[in-house]
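Objective 1b: paired records.
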Amino acid sequence: MNLFNNPVVGNKFFARERELNFLHRKVEDLKNGYRHNVAVLGKGLIGKSSLLLHFLSGLDTADVVPVYLDLSTLSFAGFVDQFIGMLLHYNYKDIENETSADLQSLINLASSDLPGTCKKIKIIYSHMKTANKERAVFQELLDLPPCFSKESGKFCLIVFDNFSKLTDYKLGEPFSILGEKIMLQKMSLYILSDRPYINLRNILSQQLSLLFGKFQMFDLEPFSPHESLAFIDSRVKDVKLSAELKDFLVYFSGGEPFYLDILTESISIKAGEKKLLVVTQKDLSRFIYECIYARFASVNQYFSRIVEKFSGNGYLKEPIKILNAVIRKNKIAAIIEDSKCSKAGIHKLLEKFIMQNMVIKNGPLYAIEDEVFKMWLRLKEIEAIPQLKLDQRAHTEKFVNEIRQLIETFEKEQQRSIDNKILNLIAAFDNEKVTVGKAAHILPVFKHIHTEYTTSQDALLSGHGTKLWIFSIFKKMAEEDDILNFIDYYKKLKHRVARKVLIILNGITPEAKLLAMKEHIWIWSSDRLNSLLNLYRKARIGTQRNAPFLKAKGEV
């Protein structure tokens, strides 16, 4: 079994209620004559396939026929067979002894009540026998759902997982063809899913006719800190794990369901084997090493395969050096100096890393967001140092201690005040033009940064340079009165305020958000804040329990 192609459905599926409800509403809209096709975007291992398959498994309607295709695993011939086979299989799935029928048996079964559909299928397979007919086959195949719907009276739900793989087939312009066909199919709902490659949104908005095809895109995000903690509690029941170590797991995993799953499974199994009642920091460090970084651990092998794609003859040294330089430095000149690799080679590899979402580039800044991957890169760098030729036990202990140091550093950072972290972040701005949310803005140099006002619940910082920025930090849920107080504060200032920023760490009410938007106040969620902290090489903010704020005025 491939650990990385094993979607989670049924009782093991966790959270995602909002996304599931959204997809179910799209099906109801389809049946009511309001079709909105969907694109689900999200990085690898975020759970896109799990979401889609769990959604389909809970689809209890006789008048909607689902067709799910994972294009990453299919040849073009397999794509055609699976498309036709699943369409017919789910149409006849309630007929006794037919659920296991082969494709030809299903076609024979359909010949009496779906003659037009069967005629179309015969045309498709006749084209398949002719060389260089893939484009014609694809066009005919996409005409199959409306033909089937006309004869059966049923709706079609077509799911293309990893849909960018259509470019691997000899189809010419597959997305233009798909976009043209989608516009005409009123009884078919298309759900497309893939990683957010750089040009993918352009494909969705241009070649797939976002407007006329009525597509709706949503990004599948990691679990929230609250969901991540709930996940840990649901999986680790028979052994005590301190709040601090749970918070570390949330931070380390980044809320990624895949990482949380293998980490909690490892904790439960290994703690059970050792008959532990309490998992200590040292225990957790060893468990993490064994389930992720040990030589034969699946994640270790997975990362190795990814990086090997970018190295000549499987030689990992240069990619590892460049990626570790990205961890330490955020601008290209510093990355080149740190890695000591050729400038041309670095630019070429960084472009490839960005295309694969291994590295992010925001304006002039580079970063890696995945903490699990960062630690793997760090351990690979240590492993490559010649003087560390240790026996296996000493080798393992060295790496376990590296992980333990990471936990200790995280716990120390958790004790630092949040507004102090934010103060240090905005002190690092250096006129870079970066994207925060959906808009790109220049983050100016501030000569002075003041803590203007602080309570036990919020803090107020101001940055002075050629322009004045005001940052209002809310640890609690931000409400309408809070925004009104913030507006009243900055309107009384003698100097013109160039930018007002709300930093929201624990949510904002709809009324407060609307008011802030009307006043042209930026809203930085904890996710956006953490992305900026990562870009500027500052420690990210972890799970918010009772994190402290500064108790006195200060300045940087």
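Objective 1b, second protein:
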Amino acid sequence: MEPARDITTYRRHWAHRFGTAPFLPMSRAEMDALGWDSCDVIIVTGDAYVDHPSFGMAIIGRVLEAQGFRVGIIAQPDWHSAEPFKVLGRPNLFFGITAGNMDSMVNRYTSDRRVRTDDAYTPGGVGGKRPDRSVIVYAQRAREAYGDVPIVIGGIEASLRRIAHFDYWSEKVRRSVLLDAKADLLIYGNAERQLCELAHRLAAGESIRDITNLRGTAFVRKGTPEGWVEIDSTHLDAPGPLNPPVDPYAMQPEGAAQAPAGASCGASSAASTAPNEKVVRFVRRVKNEQRERSVIRMPSFEQVSADPVLYAHASRILHMESNPGNARALVQRHGNVDVWLNPPPIPLTTKEMDWVYELPFQRRPHPVYGDANIPAYKMIRFSVAIQRGCFGGCTFCSITEHEGRIIQSRSEESILREVERVRDTVPGFTGVISDLGGPTANMYRLACRSRQIESACRRPSCVYPGICPNLNTDHTPLIRLYRRARALPGIKKVLIASGVRYDLAVESPEYVKELTQHHVGGYLKIAPEALAEGPLSKMMKPGVAAYYRFKELFDRYSKEAGKEQYLIPYFIAAHPGTSDQDMLELALWLKKNGFRADQVQAFLPSPMATATAMYHSGKNPLRRVTRTSEDVLIPKGLKVRRLHKAFLRYHDPNNWPLLREALRRMGRADLIGNGKHQLVPAWQPQGTGTSPEGRRGGSAHRPFRTQHTGLPRTPRVRGTKARRG
């Protein structure tokens, strides 16, 4: 993997002479106070503007400001006209469009496609302050406001929709968001590296249409440039002949005759799409010296829309080509144009991570919000991020697709300086750091033992089906960080709120001891997600044996410290690979262990996730996808999804009629009754049972809360993460 340019070494743009803004301006009056006549970049976001490094618009804004650019923020604009997009005037370089920290559809709808009434990223927690598919709507309004200004889209919503993707809310495959937003460039993943180079090149006079060699970006082009070699994706992973048998990679003009019967997906074919266009022959192997000029052609949007097996194949190829050390460019035809994806960006170094997180964040909401409560800010205002990325590879999770699987860690000194800034500057601080973590709490400084092996690896997970022998699992740096953080003057306690990867933690009993005895506030959340091998193998999660090993250590060290502490396990309902019997066994396990789920997390097929490809296709992209390859059991339909959630909430009387019916159908009527080992009683309390899914329904993206029935008056514990590794 070639080293990338250090983002701290760019010569700053001339506008750096204006200095650092206390808050990035949201109005003309603030621009006037700073002495600005215009903004170089305007960021449009679906979240309220909180100047904190946990908010994407703040990180990107401060990074570009540190490069010398004047950056303005338009937060949660009224999207019904273009006028709110003119409030800061015409940007000199580009509009940067993001839906915010969450996908707007996940933010807006539950897994049952019901509209949410709340939004944690909005003042007062009020829902409805952003449109559905925010990136598309914001980009279109920005184009209406200033038609000649380049539009750059990014963030989690754009990142997960960079190619043709299955859309759960419309139950169809949609084309790349780049086309629907009519944007000039899509930036995927954490965007600091791409945006620094892009802004400086635009400021130097380059046209955005000519910037096609930037890693971590996607753009539209008409054909394959001269000198590039195309690789048929089926040479890497052949899905087998189609039915009816046609060649899915024959890029024929509209109206052209179909391939003759009997053609297969693996057949070599031409890439020409129009008369006079150069014919590029697919090749099976590429010489090393040609690798940088090779591109993998995936099935077109039209083909993956019509054929779920080809969709699963394309998903597998995309995930195989996700390692920055060996990934090649990808191209996917959409109508008469190609959507071209450059390889992922090179991860930030520790030096660059320190620089980013030590920029002059105010660590609080913009003053325009007054004293309004922004729930997401309240949750993270005393937390400190120590790392990025996740190598867990959980198929239902969006972290790896967005941040990558290579861990990017900050230095101890940088983290400790931020803890001190929280102590000294954040209003309301009482001495408790709410979290030192990231996507996963205990992956800090964990990496492959060999850079060469890491650069060549195509495994989607470093810990499934078992921990890779090449993975360094030494938790010593993290233990040292915990000890130094809690020893700082004025710090009473450091809690760990990020999810702990317990199969990694048991590799270091000393870490489990440190965590248990000093950094748990009575309850620690971990995520088995399931117990049965069927769903676990489709999630790429460890078996329950790892949970029991961790629990044994947790209980032992809690007892040694004289503390009464409990694990809070999270589970997912209706995940691909899950049968009714699997959920019944999980419900019996929950009852046996005295757990009651207060909020249920049902599987929500997010765009581009591997589990979503399973949900849509019924195939398993974790293995070679063919017409006859493994079929995956998919709990589809509202009735079965409600049943699976009801099993997790077996204790709710509103669910008992549904569970009794299911138990009788499954031949397990013996579990109906008042016995200790029976699941639901035969009687029904008056006034209950009217809702087939229970009184509370469920949460599509928030982990459920649990109550341990073995304890008197146990408080309910609310989860904080939307996705976990």
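Confidence is low (pLDDT under 50) at residues 240-284, 692-725. The chain is about 30% helix and 15% strand.
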